[in-house]
């Protein structure tokens, strides 16, 4: 018995929705967070190094544009390791109080 086109379309919509949710959780979330963190950190470090000089803004934007992709890839890559380390610390070093 063949599936109706409506059933096939519904199944594809479900698969597409699951893929979209996983993509946004694994890629978009870290990209947004690293956008904000790198924006603040690069601005702060540039200010510490050169102060508010004439080329402050151009250096800040350049540093942010180079740093943001690196931070995003790093977060996506190292999140599983960070989870393992966090779980280890929680189970070995922090006693539960109940």
Describe this structure in a few short sentences.
The chain has 98 residues and is an all-alpha fold. It is 85% helix and 0% strand. It is built from 2 helices and no strands.
Comma- or semicolon-separated keywords:
85% helix, flat, 98 residues, mainly alpha
Instruction: Report the β-strand fraction as a percent range.
Output: under 5%
The tally of beta strands, per DSSP, is 0
Q: Largest beta sheet, briefly?
A: none
Helix content: over 70%
Describe the secondary structure blueprint for this structure:
Blueprint: H1 5-50, H2 56-92
Could you please describe the fold and organization of this structure?
The longest helix is centred in the N-terminal third of the chain and has 46 residues, at 5-50. The protein is flat and about 60 Å long. Helix 1 (5-50) packs across helix 2 (56-92). It is 85% helix and 0% strand. The chain has helices at residues 5-50, 56-92. The chain starts with a helix and ends in a 6-residue tail after the last helix.
């Amino acid at each position: 018995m063949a599936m109706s086109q409506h059933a096939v379309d519904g199944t594809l919509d479900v698969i597409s929705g699951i893929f979209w949710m996983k993509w946004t959780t694994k890629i978009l979330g870290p990209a947004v967070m690293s956008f904000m963190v790198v924006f603040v950190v690069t601005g702060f470090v540039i200010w510490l190094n050169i102060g508010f000089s004439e080329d402050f803004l151009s250096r800040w934007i350049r540093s942010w544009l180079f740093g943001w992709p690196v931070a995003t890839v790093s977060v996506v890559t190292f999140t599983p390791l960070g989870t393992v380390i966090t779980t280890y610390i929680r189970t070995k070093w922090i006693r539960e109080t109940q």
